[in-house]
Design brief:
By secondary structure, the protein is of the alpha/beta class. The protein has 14 helices and eleven strands.
């Protein structure tokens, strides 16, 4: 599976584990990297000293490449960037902001920069800013999402025809057949989040993991578009947000309802009523918690099987 993404990151498979707040620490990142993909530490829920500790532990746990995801909404992003540079991290995924702000500084230190987008317009801007690759994330994805609600099936071809740099598909991908579909649309690799939430190594609370694998079609919805859109599992907190939005709550009222630490108490501490539970639509296809290596191996095997089936199909 040698292509532009495996060459860019020096990895065996073009499979990237998404950097997810409260779910992707050093244990998951190192396990994915050791299995042949690219593991990513999600720094958005970490204080600078915590991020530094995770990077150092990840370096001890794997001799393979790994990355760090940095949401540009993070208030101490300058400290995160300095730690990433000083610790010698080779790959950075940036999201939720202007890619021009940090790209050149990171590249000046030999760091590969990837920007996450939800539409073709921002993909072009990111390419012009000098990033090395694009993650094009469709409406199906968990966590924070695009307001356009463009699905992965539509987004990947739109972005592919807009930029020349490698494109990584994200949103609704948890199987090898979905990976093959994304590659057929022009993607050079895939980024997978929700499937890795339900892994042994994910730092998500077991209550949250169990709710993910018990979820069904229609159990998630994109909410809070007035703030930053986020896809949530339906629970008591979701119902409160929906009620507020049905009453045309202002952004200020939604911020008050959101409060502080909702994602932490839900995904990390396991409060399934009051917590903010971020996951993708593809959760309905995830039925068991598995080691990260088994997830990678299964996806690669499914990819090869699906590809062989298509090649051998008589039309």
């Amino acid at each position: 599976m040698d292509n532009r993404i495996t060459q860019l990151f020096n990895i065996q498979y073009p499979v990237i584990q998404a950097g997810m707040i409260w779910c992707s620490g050093w244990e998951l990142a190192s396990a994915v990297s050791n299995a042949g993909g690219l593991g990513v530490i999600g720094s958005g829920s970490m204080y600078p000293d915590v991020l530094k500790a995770h990077i150092q532990k990840c370096k001890r746990a794997t001799d393979k490449p790994f990355g760090v995801n940095v949401p540009m909404l993070y208030p101490d992003i300058d400290k995160h960037i300095d730690i990433i540079i000083s610790e010698g991290v080779k790959v950075v995924f940036v999201s939720a902001g202007n890619p021009k702000i940090w790209t050149q500084k990171l590249k000046d230190h030999g760091i590969i920069v990837v920007h996450v987008v939800s539409n073709a317009k921002f993909a072009k801007k990111a390419e012009e800013a000098g990033v090395d690759a694009i993650v094009a994330e469709g409406f199906e994805a968990g966590g924070h999402n695009g307001r356009e609600e463009t699905t992965t099936l539509c987004l990947i071809p739109l972005v592919k025809q807009t930029v020349k740099i490698p494109v990584i598909a994200a949103g609704g991908i948890a199987t090898g057949s979905a990976m093959l579909a994304a590659m057929a649309l022009g993607a050079d690799g895939v980024q997978i989040g929700s499937r890795f939430v339900a892994s042994n190594e994910a730092s998500a609370n077991i209550n949250f993991k169990n709710m993910v694998i018990a979820s069904n079609e229609g159990d998630t919805k994109l909410m809070m578009k007035q703030l930053t859109p986020v896809r949530l599992l339906k629970n008591k907190f979701y119902e409160a947000v929906q009620e507020a939005e049905n009453k045309c709550a202002s952004p200020e009222e939604l911020i008050t309802l959101l409060g502080r630490g909702r994602a932490k108490i839900g995904m990390f501490e396991g409060d399934l009523d009051e917590g903010e539970l971020e996951i993708g639509q593809v959760a309905a296809l995830i039925h068991e918690i598995m080691p990260a290596k088994e997830i990678i191996d299964k996806i690669v095997a499914e990819y090869k099987q699906a590809k062989e089936l298509l090649v051998n199909t008589v039309w």
